[in-house]
What we know:
Layout: H1 11-18, H2 35-51, E1 55-61, E2 75-81, H3 84-88, H4 90-95, E3 99-104, E4 108-113, E5 121-127, H5 131-145, H6 147-163, H7 168-174, H8 176-190
Parallel strand pairs: 2-5
Antiparallel strand pairs: 1-2, 3-4, 4-5
Helix pairs in contact: 5-6, 5-8
Amino acid sequence: HFELRGTGRSYILILKEFMxxxxxxxxxxxxxxxxxSKAFLREKKRILKVSGxxxxxxxxxxxxxxxxxxxxxxxxxxxxxxxxxxAVKLTKxxxxxxxxxxxxxxxxxxxxxxxxxxxxxxxxxxxHNGQKWRNDILFRNYxxxxxxxAWEYEIIKKKLAxxxxxxRDVYTNHxxxxxxxxxxxxxxxxx
Length: 191
């Protein structure tokens, strides 16, 4: 239990207000909460305030950004930078906001916020308008514009959550084919 700097409010109260948090590695899906978009906007503002001009844009991605479907109660965000090298500079700054460096790949640097027992935000830092950035936005937007397709995604998520409640890696990997198919459809519609 600790106070968020300058707010007079505790982190625990904010987690309860926004119904956020999930233990690392677990899969538990919740009905969409209208407060998630507010939590995203609040967190985006906090990150942009401390990141200077390193971050070009931050987008709300993942299922919490799609009001019509269930989601893990963790806010996923894509943060666009001019160069992936710039993202490394954010590690110390983001740690002041409670983010921990988690892993680096060719396309992104991944940060998690919250203790392992209650992860609340995932920040995927990547090249702004790079392929990963465009795919994250394209997937989200396709689900927003096609509610029946989003519903299909929800069905898959429910089945996988029931099969793998204690193995988020397997749960995530099994969603990959649906995500690839969605991106193909979305790219085809763009033509």
